[in-house]
Amino acid sequence: MERIPILRMGKFLLITIQVDMHDTTALALQDDLMAKIARSGARGVLIDISALDVVDSYIGRMIADISMMSKLLHARTVLVGMRPAVAITLVELGLSLRGVKTALDVEKGMELLAAALEDGDAADQD
Amino acid sequence: MPPIRTDWVEVRAESDIVHARQLVRRLSSEMGFRLVDQTKLVTAASELARNTVVHGGGGRLSWECIAEEGREGIRLTFHDCGPGIADVQLALKDGWSTGKGLGMGLSGTKRLVNEFEIESRPGRGTRVTITKWK
């Protein structure tokens, strides 16, 4: 079965989804990612979907679940690169991905994660 | 009027959900649908193909490129011989779910297309037909 690679960049993990995913590939990604967060202590996850021309309810749910699961493992998730047509379709489908943080591209997503981490660390010290 | 082109494919395995998406993307792109409409139709096809595989135990996708009253469109029919749906009206409501999805499958799919028809009877399978006009 195909597996989506998870790259480590400092305190963050980067996932770039470039294939039209099978449902089981999406599930495997969830498992792999949670294991990697637990092992590495990563504090942030960036999911780049700029190559995806379709996000249906199954993939949408997987993204929302990853965001919630990561939070329980003390990591924040930012979804980046959603295409305009995908955003329009997701909302009409009824999936608003509430609770999922987004940024336009990988660079802005990294900034968001870094800023969130600084804020979080400051809060921890209070 | 007869369809310009028509054919069908099996929708049995999980990989067929991916194939159905790719097929509908190709058809809608060849027919010159706007990108947003392509995306909506491909997404609708993905939802219905998954229903066919997961709930219907596999079935078929029949597709037609059609032209009538001066407009062109694509009509997709997903047909399975699975357990069927007892209460179709209920199944079309937002939030209705068998527990595997978000309860957006049928009602959400309906919003993505221009025409949506569903026929289902317990023990007799389900047939969903959607049409998107260009």
In terms of topology, how is this protein built?
The complex is a heterodimer of chains A (about 130) and B (about 130).
Chain A: E1 6-9, E2 12-16, H1 23-40, E3 44-48, H2 57-72, E4 76-80, H3 84-93, E5 101-103, H4 106-125
Parallel strand pairs in A: 2-3, 3-4, 4-5
Antiparallel strand pairs in A: 1-2
Chain B: E1 5-11, H1 14-30, H2 35-54, E2 59-68, E3 71-80, H3 88-91, H4 105-112, E4 115-121, E5 125-133
Antiparallel strand pairs in B: 1-2, 2-3, 3-5, 4-5
Structural description of this entry:
The complex is a heterodimer of chains A (126) and B (134). With 126 residues, chain A is an alpha/beta fold. Chain A contains 4 helices and 5 strands. Chain A has helices spanning 23-40, 57-72, 84-93, 106-125, and strands spanning 6-9, 12-16, 44-48, 76-80, 101-103. In chain A, strands 1-2-3-4-5 form a 5-stranded mixed β-sheet, sandwiched between helices. In chain A, helix 1 (23-40) runs parallel beside helix 2. Chain B is of the alpha+beta class and 134 residues long. Chain B has a single domain, classed as 2-Layer Sandwich (Heat Shock Protein 90), CATH 3.30.565. Chain B has helices at 14-30, 35-54, 88-91, 105-112; strands at 5-11, 59-68, 71-80, 115-121, 125-133. Chain B has a 5-stranded antiparallel β-sheet, covered by helices on one side. In chain B, a hairpin with a 2-residue loop joins strand 2 and strand 3 (71-80). Chain A binds chain B through residues 20-24, 53-58, 60-61, 83-86, 88-89, 92-95, and chain B through 14-15, 17-18, 21-22, 25, 35-36, 38-40, 42-43, 46-47, 50, 94, 101-102, 104-105, 107-109, 111-112.
